[in-house]
# Entry
Amino acid sequence: MREAAQPVLEVNGLKTIFRTRGGEVHAVNSVSFDLKPGELLGVVGESGSGKSVTMMSLIGLLPSPPAEVREGSVMFDGLDLLKCTPAQLRAVRGPGVGFIFQDPMTSLNPVFTVGYQLREPLLKHMGMTKAQANVRAKELLELVGIPDAERRLKDYPHQFSGGMRQRVMIAIALACDPKVLIADEPTTALDVTIQAQILELVKDLRQKLGMAIIWITHDLGVIAGIADRVMVMYGGQIAEQGPVKEVFAHPRHPYTRALLQTVPSVRGERADTLNVIEGQPPILRAAPSACSFRDRCTQRFGACAAANPARYDVGPGHDAACFWDFDTDAPRAEAPVKEAAHG
Ligand SMILES: Nc1ncnc2c1ncn2[C@@H]1O[C@H](COP(=O)(O)OP(=O)(O)OP(=O)(O)O)[C@@H](O)[C@H]1O
Ligand code: SF4
Ligand SMILES: [Mg+2]
# Structure
């Protein structure tokens, strides 16, 4: 990993809301992070924590309405992607930022063959002839482990199984050698052997092409195995982020601690029982004015209901959004003063 390199992607103060009949849903609340060239950033968090909405907001993939990216900036290649025209964004998608969707059917077009859909970005962005694009399309299908690739290029998405469609999508996202690859739970529908193959493939491409990768997953074991850095999301915010080894060995946010306890094997202990985190994640009808984890937090105290904690540095490149300081086992100096011991 190249520590000193300039980030390839810089996200600052991103806020995304949805307008629904029941009012606004504040899905992403002031999210800031960056990504270095060649870095693999793992993103984890319970269902509804804002992982997909954050990443889709970056390159204008959310339908508006109901979504509205309300604030922030997303710097990529000298451009603020939030200020780009639809045509500029189309030019960035593919060779700039490749996206593998959580649901393959949202991005594969049912009326075109897989070969057509693989050739299209190659013709449009890579300046290839149709013959060159055909050769490359076949190579890409082989790369993601689809047998009989030449014949399968003529098939339509519905002729592929769910796992195969996911692999086709990965091939399309990789077609233009993007600088940044965003993979939203790309291997969930695949069996363990294929998952391992895809992970190897991605590691390999990252080394060969210096591609930076954002990998969203529920699987903390995968993060431990492939990521340089991990970002833990909760309630549309970053609860904690830092170098993966450091965060897993010394988690500082009660949510990260609880999440890691749900899979004890990640920390080298035996997993005899699978713990669950009591309670439900919040649906935010307004921007958070208190810690959104407090209803489920065993550590909560008076300050937690008084303000939304900022992210505090807890180690080199490691921060956590919590008023409790686990190093001194006392409230942080920045925590609002409240009388109640437990709020
Ligand atoms: N179209 C929509 N309309 C209203 N709210 C939405 C819409 N899409 C997402 N949300 C809300 O945004 C929040 C974040 O959702 P998001 O899909 O980013 O979660 P996630 O972390 O990717 O979850 P999962 O692990 O289940 O994929 C959730 O509260 C969700 O209900
Ligand atoms: S700020 Fe308070 S409620 Fe929130 S995670 Fe920290 S201790 Fe728990
Ligand atoms: Mg998601």
